[in-house]
Amino acid sequence: MTAGRRPLRRQHGFSFLEMVVALAVLAAIVAFMAPTLLTSLSASREDATLAEMAQIYQAILGDQRENFAYAGDVGDYPSSLDKLVSDTATGWRGPYLGNVNRVNSMLTDGYGQPYEYYLLTGVSGSDRLAIISRGADGLSTNTAMNPNVAANFTGVAPTDSAYFEGTNNADNIVYPTPSSTNTNALNVNITGTLALNIQNFDSNSLVNAFVPACPNLYRVTVTSQARGTAVVSSLGYAPGFQVDLPQGVYQVLITAQNLTAAPFNERLTVIPGQTLTRSPNITGLDSSGTDSFVLTVVNKQPTESLRVYQFATQLTAQTGNTVIAAGGTSTFSVRACAQVFIKSGTTTAIRDQVVMPWSAVTKNVGGSAATLAVTNNRADTIRLYNSDIFFGEVRKGKSQTFTVGLLAGDVVQSRTTTGTVLTTLTLNTGANTLTQN
Fold it and tell me: Which CATH class is domain 292-365?
């Protein structure tokens, strides 16, 4: 080597051949890993979509104990999933969702497809609710232009055992997941029941005790704290009082016809699927000096006459007679909240008895039992009255049968929650039906 000369060094970098070999190796690695990567990506999208569906579901229902979400604030299910983000309904306190994909006022899943909203409320008992993703293939038997709207749902229902069969729904994701071992997975209820059992102390010397409150002496108003509106407005109380209320917090006010101050005013929480019972004991009544109302007694017995007593005192009818002949009708003036005994006209046997309401009333005696099956196809709740005394209600889309305390000849009315009469029906012996559209 010549003195003073340094050895040659290799230039930094890769030759063309080395680059080709490196790319070939990289391509082989990518080809080998691609299925795993795609599977991982698909699983990630499915997991993210499923998590978001759970959030949407809870945005509608909350935890149904402390957080009542859309259903509790508004008092109903949203008509569209977009209502969870933007709505003008009374009581709305949203948005109930954050960081959701929203395209053309539709919520979309991790695959860029609009969510489907399945809601069925026209059934007895529980409603049915599900959020659905069309999956990676974007196919569905639901062909609605805006599947975010519950009323637009078409195709196979997710409650159908054949829902996942065929190509269109094969990779759909349904939340909650229906299965043959959990047929109630999609069942849900947003209403609970408020039951009142009022006892009033009657200082009449013939009573001098707490007794079940007489019908229509008390008025009940139930106001939603979220909406600030009276869901129940001055509804007359009668023993057995029950009303169904959407989940949430309510102010329950009870006023009395004979008292200036409200004897009960309490904030209560209604949990769906549960009955909340309150049993107030109220004083201030003396049935010996209450207002008098007309009692009409219809004797439906074929052969036996009847006599009418207010406590132990026999009453004379307004037409002057003291005995109601078989098949006859008589009217009497009776003090509100007094105990009325209707006895045989020839013996001391009691044939019927009633606590006189704070209103006029008709009492059929000896009639045959009747039942009433009510189907409510209206968009609101209907209430049922027998001789102006409230005895039950049926919410929209529901059916209910009433079997207690009804007799042939009773005149039943269905009314709106504001008191407007919808139907008047005279009951026949046995089964009666009423469908309200």
Answer: mainly beta
E-only strand ranges, 261-338: 264-270, 275-278, 281-285, 292-299, 306-310, 313-314, 329-335
**Per-residue pLDDT tens digits for 6-39:** 555 555 566 777 777 777 777 777 666 656 544 5
SS3 101: strand
- Residue 291: phi and psi, rounded to 5, are -60, 155
Alpha-carbon distance 244 to 274, whole Å? Answer: 10
Q: What token pair was written down for 305?
A: 């006459």
**Residue ranges of the domains in the chain?**
45-188, 190-289, 292-365
| Side chain identity, residue 18 | E
Domain 190-289 class, CATH top level = mainly beta
Measured in degrees and rounded to the nearest 5, phi and psi for residue 50 equal -65, -40
Contact by Cβ (8 Å): 354, 340: yes
The percentage of the chain sitting over the pLDDT mark of 90, rounded to a whole number, equals 84
pLDDT (0 to 100) of residue 37: 47
> Which residue in 85, 87, 77, 89 sits closest to 118, CA to CA?
77
**Any idea of the CA torsion for 275, 281, 286, 291, to the nearest 10 degrees?**
-30
